């Protein structure tokens, strides 16, 4: 019997990741492209990626799109879904990128033995996804936009139109601002990571300040959701050894509730896997 597969597409601010994924969440084939700034080019690259992945499997059952907030990307996931469905004879489902990440963690990752899993993605901004009993919690439809909770209402202007949103203090945006404040020539997370590894005191301080901001933001999430486990993902999470202590210190000092576990994701391409597993679950529930 041939193996049924599902396609997961994870659109990020820097890269578009795609994968052909088994029903158990194993990536069989994967592709990565840079994320362009123009809407038309994003559409073209996603369509090309999906077509290439479909050609690798005659048993592909559906496509899942892991999509960021339209605040950060000039293309809504719902529009991308409609365009794919017109071109490709497969069902397409779309979900918030952090929710896809959290779903993957709850099914096959660090959260698989827990009922309430909060996934946090630290990339261009900050995304949040909550999974309860292996189901994405959506509220009326868009719950867990933790990156747009307010950390400082006198803070920097956010693309959403508000001021002082959490994602302006953490992720790549926060790092760039902190690097500028500390008079670094570089604003790139990878460069600041290397400097911290080499013991640069200013770089280490930047990561500590970011950790404090993140810790305060997570306190708000803990007090509202009371998750059993928080899983950190995204490129910035790989610098956890530099910001973990400051983050945990703020959580311990400020949280009203006793915090659960906090772990850094060990999944490779969790957004891709989560999107594919979303497609599998949705396909299984749909009338075939």
Q: What does this molecule look like?
A:
With 288 residues, this protein is an alpha/beta fold. It folds into 2 domains: 112 residues, Nucleotidyltransferase, domain 5 (2-Layer Sandwich); 152 residues, ATPase, nucleotide binding domain (Nucleotidyltransferase, domain 5, 2-Layer Sandwich). The protein contains 8 helices and 10 strands. The strands form 2 sheets. The chain has a 5-stranded mixed β-sheet with strand order 3-2-1-4-5. Strands 8-7-6-9-10 form a 5-stranded mixed β-sheet, covered by helices on one side. The radius of gyration is 19 Å and the shape is globular. The two termini are 19 Å apart. The mean pLDDT is 95. Pfam families: ROK. Belongs to the ROK (NagC/XylR) family. This is Glucokinase.
What descriptive keywords fit this protein?
Nucleotidyltransferase, domain 5, alpha/beta, 288 residues
CATH architecture of the largest domain: 2-Layer Sandwich
Class inferred from helices and paired strands: alpha/beta
Q: What is the share of helical residues?
A: 25-40%
CATH homologous superfamily of the largest domain - what is it? ATPase, nucleotide binding domain
Give the overall form: globular
List strands and helices in order, with pairings.
Layout: E1 5-11, E2 15-22, E3 27-34, H1 39-54, E4 60-67, H2 77-87, E5 92-96, H3 97-108, E6 116-122, E7 126-132, E8 135-136, H4 171-181, H5 189-197, H6 201-225, E9 229-233, H7 240-254, E10 261-264, H8 270-285
Parallel strand pairs: 1-4, 4-5, 6-9, 9-10
Antiparallel strand pairs: 1-2, 2-3, 6-7, 7-8
Helix pairs in contact: 3-8, 4-6, 5-6, 6-7
InterPro entries: ATPase_NBD, ROK
Organism: Candidatus Kerfeldbacteria bacterium CG_4_10_14_0_8_um_filter_42_10
Protein name: Glucokinase
């Amino acid at each position: 019997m041939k193996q049924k597969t599902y396609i997961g597409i994870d659109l990020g601010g820097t890269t578009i990741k795609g994968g052909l994924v088994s029903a158990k969440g194993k990536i069989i084939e994967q592709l990565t492209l840079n994320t362009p700034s123009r809407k038309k080019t994003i559409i073209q690259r996603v369509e090309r990626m999906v077509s290439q992945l479909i050609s690798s499997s005659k048993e592909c059952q559906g496509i899942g799109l892991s999509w960021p907030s339209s605040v950060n990307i000039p293309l809504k996931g719902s529009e991308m879904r409609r365009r794919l469905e017109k071109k490709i004879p497969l069902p397409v489902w779309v979900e918030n990128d952090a929710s896809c990440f959290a779903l993957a963690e709850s099914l096959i990752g660090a959260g698989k033995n827990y009922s309430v899993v909060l996934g946090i993605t630290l990339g261009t901004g900050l995304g949040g996804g909550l999974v309860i009993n292996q189901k994405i919690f959506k509220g009326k439809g868009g719950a867990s936009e933790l990156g747009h909770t307010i950390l400082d209402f006198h803070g920097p202007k956010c693309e959403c139109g508000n001021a002082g949103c959490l994602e302006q203090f953490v992720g790549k945006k926060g790092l760039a601002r902190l690097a500028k404040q500390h008079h670094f020539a570089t604003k790139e997370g990878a460069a600041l990571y290397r400097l911290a590894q080499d013991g640069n005191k200013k770089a280490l301080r930047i990561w500590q300040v970011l950790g404090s901001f993140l810790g305060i933001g997570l306190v708000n999430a803990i007090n509202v959701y009371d998750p059993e486990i928080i899983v950190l993902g995204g490129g910035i999470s790989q610098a956890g050894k530099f910001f973990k202590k400051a983050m945990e210190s703020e959580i311990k000092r400020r949280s009203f509730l006793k915090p659960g576990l906090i772990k850094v994701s060990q999944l490779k391409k969790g957004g891709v896997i989560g999107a594919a597993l979303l497609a599998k679950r949705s396909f299984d529930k749909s009338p075939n």
